[in-house]
UniProtKB/TrEMBL annotation:
SUPFAM superfamilies per the UniProt record, alphabetical: FAD/NAD(P)-binding domain
Name of the protein described by the UniProt record: Pyridine nucleotide-disulfide oxidoreductase domain-containing protein 2
Main location per the UniProt record: mitochondrion
Organismal lineage: Eukaryota, Metazoa, Chordata, Craniata, Vertebrata
rRNA-binding found in the keyword field: no
Record key words, sorted: FAD, Flavoprotein
Record InterPro entries: Amino_oxidase (IPR002937), FAD/NAD-bd_sf (IPR036188)
Function, in words: Probable oxidoreductase that may play a role as regulator of mitochondrial function.
Domain Amine oxidase: 270-582
Family membership: Belongs to the carotenoid/retinoid oxidoreductase family.
Subunit architecture: Interacts with COX5B; this interaction may contribute to localize PYROXD2 to the inner face of the inner mitochondrial membrane.
Amino acid sequence: MAAAVKSRLCRAHRGFLSFTRRYDHSATVLKRQYDAIVIGAGHNGLIASAYLQKGGLRTAVLERRHVLGGAAVSEEIFPGFHFSRASYLLSLLRPHIYQDLELKISKVRLSLQKHGLKVFMRDPYSFTPMLEDGVGGRPPRSLMLGADLTKTQQEISKFSEKDAKVYGDFLRYLERLACAIHPLLDAPPVDIVGLTQGSLTKRISALKSLKPLVKSGLKLGKNAPDFYELVTAPVMKVLNRWFESEPLRATLATDSVIGANTSPSNPGSGYVLLHHVMGELEREKGAWGYVEGGMGGVSQSIARSARSLGADIFTNSEAEQVLIAPDGSVKGVVLTDGTEVHSKVVLSNATPYVTFKRLIPQEALSEMFIKAVEQIDYTSPVTKINVAVDKLPDFLAAPNIREGIPGPHHQCSIHLNCENVEVLEKAYSEAQRGLPSTRPMIEMTIPSVLDPTLAPPGCHVVSLFIQFTPYLLEGQRAWTSEDKERFADSVFDWVECYAPGFKNSIVGTDVLTPSDLERVFGLTGGNIFHGSMSLDQLYLARPLPSVADYRSPVKGLYLCGSGSHPGGGVMGAAGWNSAVRVLEDFKKL
């Protein structure tokens, strides 16, 4: 099997082109005039285009890459192996967007709606194997969490009876706090300027921006102190109060640092945990699933919806600069090939740094604003490794019953090097010194166990989301190919410890360090959230207090990406909120 797969890798170019043809059907004619232009076909940009077109604005989306989706993209890196190359799980996409754009997931386990989105639910959803010697010939212990509370409590009781008893209460505690955030997600932040400046009429009009905040407060009620504590405290302060067993605390703590350059002991890590549990799939709170065909399936379904409404979407169309009219307002964009496309408004799905430092002529912005943009934190701790394998991993803690037949644990987020919080803390500490973690935190997923379309028969695609790795190595030097190879080999050695034979099963790898994530996907600093999700860069201050309402200092230019409220993940709220703001303003332009 390995030889057959490896021989197919020689046909990578041909397979890559066929994949592009299958997944990317762009509009054929770029007009010279639109009402709105969206820079970047990430999921937020596509969502914004759909709502703008639905609202009556002739809209075009310009994507610099050959494929749609931004970080929510599927790519056939090796022939026959289709990867969610960057983002890899779905949960946070707002329910009303499913419905409005006819993407809504039905109640059946596997769903197909008008625009082709299929999602596989995962149950169980979390698997943490231990590195230990089994007792009496038994396998090492492991912890598996799922939707069945009784089974999950049985799993937890292997480590602590006390923790098993209170786990259900903990889930309800998180759900209460997460649900209170929902009103804030689907609306811009409070209009502070409108409330404090201008005429009485404008101030009264701005009062409606308080409604989501009031609704959120009413939902919280007596739980407001708990909410405040969780979003401001180190997550370990909360987890230590609830639980005593290390495997459970460490497993839960991974969601407090995933994608974030922080440790479970740092203030604000509690909010990162809350951010990752506030989604839903199939009306199941906090559930995460695999998209058929990879995460590009989400972007493609949104693109189909936008096109059905009349939006034009173009790949291989890189915007070089936003055009500014003599009166200081936008008048369109110029592409790298010199083509000018005019419009009354421009929405940028790029990071705020790319938007204001590269796309906007610097003379159109104040020096103070530019300095503020330069202070936005984009630090990333993430390296993503996509691996093609010719057999299913076989874990010591849960041996395969039959070769090639997945067990329940294979569909999970598999947490390696997550037996105790001390391991996570050490990994974080090393990266702060410019050292790739010697024992990194690894979140491993194998979506092909539920979605056979992703890999050839008997083979699988494996996603390794790894922390902590710095953007620059010790001495402020860039990663070399040798550094990447050495780190990847170290990661594979750790996987091998839990699943012997993994290294021999590898037939192809794609290593994306923070600098690679920046280069390939335009993620400044390699930050998957378009900017840190720290407390100083949330809500009224995301990405900066002066642009938290999606409007920029340049009239007619708006932000619509994850660098805006409410932040990162495949959520779509920033795209929706910015489109609503543009539609409100358009008649005044």
